[in-house]
Amino acid sequence: MRIETLDENTKKNLLEDLLKRSPNSYAQYEASVQEILNTVREKRDEAIFAYTKKFDGADIDASNILVTEEEVKEAYAQIDENLLRIVRRALHNIETYHQKQMQYSWFDSKPDGTMLGQKVTALRRVGVYVPGGKAAYPSSVLMNIMPAKVAGVEEIIMVTPPGKDGKVNPTTLVAAKEAGADAVYKVGGAQAVAALAYGTESIPRVDKIVGPGNIYVALAKKAVYGHVSIDSIAGPSEILVLADETANPRYVAADLLSQAEHDELASAILVTTSRKLAEQVSQETDRFIQELSRGEIIQKSLDNYGHILVAETLEAAIDAANEIASEHLEIMTKDPYQVMMKIRNAGAIFIGEYSSEPLGDYFAGPNHILPTNGTAKFFSPLSVDDFLKKSSIIAYSREALEEVHRDIEQFAEAEHLTAHANSIKVRFEK
After folding, report:
1. Residue 105: which of 390, 395, 386 has the closest Cα?
2. d(Cα 130, Cα 29) in Å, to the nearest integer?
3. Distance in angstroms (rounded) separating the CA atoms of residues 196 and 396
4. Nearest-angstrom CA–CA distance, 373 and 368
C-alpha cells in the first residue's frame, strides 16, 4: 500500500479521489435506468418478466415470481445446520439492539385545555432489496428486515434476483424467513426497484425501499425517491483504521483487507501517527494478498483507493478521520475510548483491537447498512427510525384558544394571509 505524509494537500486529493466512487458520478447509466423505470411503470409485470429473462436468464412469470412455501422448505433442507444456528444467534443480537431504538407516541396535557403530542406510526408496507447472482448476503437480509419488524411494519416484501434456474439462493431465502419477510419475489436490478415503487399486477407498491445493490439499483432508488421513501443511495464499501504505535500491524492489515475484498471500488485507509506501523502494515497486506482467495480484487482496490497516511499528531489523525467520515472506523490506539469521544463523523465505530469490522457486519447487533462517501457527516445507520413516521398532535379547548387568538390573527395578517386569520377569528364572532 502507498504510504503518504498527511497534510492538507494529500487530504484534499484523497477526498476528491473518494468522491469519484459516489453513485452521483455515474450519470452515464442514468438514461438506461430511467428507461427501465418507465417501461416497468407502463408495462408492469410484462416488463418485469422480460427484464428478468434478459438480465438474469430466468423464465419468470405470474405463476412462479412469488417464492412458495415449498421452495422455503427446500431451502431449509439445503442449508448447513450450524450456519442456521449462527443466523439465529445473529438475529437475536440484531433484534435486541434494535429494540432499544424504539420510539413511542407521547402526549402532554396542561390545565389550560391544551394538549400537544406526537403520534408514532410504523410504515404499512416496506420493500427490501437483496443482491443476488453468485453472491449470497444473508447478513444483509437480517439487517434490513429486523429493524422493520421491531418498528411494527405490517408487511415486509423482499425482492432478489433469481438464478438461471429461477430459484433464490437458499441461504438468502432461509435468512428472509427467519427474519420475518412476508413475501419474497424473484426480481432484481432497477426493474425490482421500479416494481416496488410503482406496483405491478404481481408486486404491490410499497411505502419505502431499503437495501443495497449495484449502481443500477442505487440510481433507480435515487430516481424513484419522492414516489416512495428510500433509506440511502449506497456507495462502495469503505474502512478507515485510526492507529498509533501500540496497534498490531497484522490486525490492522487484516481489517483493511476485509473491506478491500468487496470490490475494486472499495476504499481501505490507515491513518496513523507511526511510520514504523505504516511500513509494517504495508508489508502485511502484501503477504495477506498472496494467501486470500479474492487477492486480485483486493490488489486492484488497494491500487485504486488504498492509502496509508502518516500524521504528525493524533489530533491531526482524528481531524482527517472526521473529514473522511468513513462508513466503518476502527480505533486502535493506546486510549481508544478517549479518541472515540473526539470522533464526529463515522457510520460505525469499532473500539479496540478485538472489535474487528466483520464483527459488526455479521454478529454484534448494530446495523451494518451504513452511510458511505462522506455522508456519515449527516446520515445515520439504518435503524428502527427508518420504518417509523411521526404525526404532530394539537388539541386546544375554546378557553385555551381564546387566550391567544389575537396573537395568531396578527401573525397571519403580518404575512398577508387573511384567510388564515379569518379561520381563527370566526370562532370568536359575537
Report:
1. 390
2. 20
3. 40
4. 15
> Closest Cα to residue 258, out of 318, 172, 328, 354?
328
Burial of 152 (0-12, 13-18, 19+ CB in 10 A): middle
Identify whether the C-beta of residue 46 lies closer than 8 Å to the C-beta of residue 203. no
CA–CA distance, 276 with 334 (Å, rounded to integer): 16
C-alpha span between 358 and 369 (Å, rounded): 13
Active site residue 328: yes
The residue annotated as part of the active site, out of 284, 327, 330, 353, is 327
**Catalytic pick among 98, 262, 307, 328:** 328
In whole angstroms, give the CA distance from residue 237 to residue 255. Answer: 13
Q: Write the single-letter amino acid at 353.
A: E
Each residue's pLDDT, cut to its tens digit, for the chain (430 residues) gives 989 999 999 888 888 888 777 766 677 889 999 999 999 999 999 999 999 999 999 999 999 999 999 999 999 999 999 999 999 999 999 999 999 999 999 999 999 999 999 999 999 999 999 998 656 789 999 999 999 999 999 999 999 999 999 999 999 999 999 999 999 999 999 999 999 999 999 999 999 999 988 889 999 999 999 999 999 888 889 999 999 999 999 999 999 999 999 888 899 999 999 999 999 999 999 999 999 999 999 999 999 999 999 999 999 999 999 999 999 999 999 999 999 999 999 999 999 999 999 999 999 999 999 999 999 999 999 999 999 999 999 999 999 999 999 999 999 999 999 999 999 999 999 8
Catalytic residue status for 296:
no
Give the number of C-alpha atoms closer than 13 A to the C-alpha of residue 163, restricted to the C-beta side.
10
Q: Which residues are paired to 402 by β-bridges?
A: none
* pTM exceeding the 0.85 threshold for the entire prediction: yes
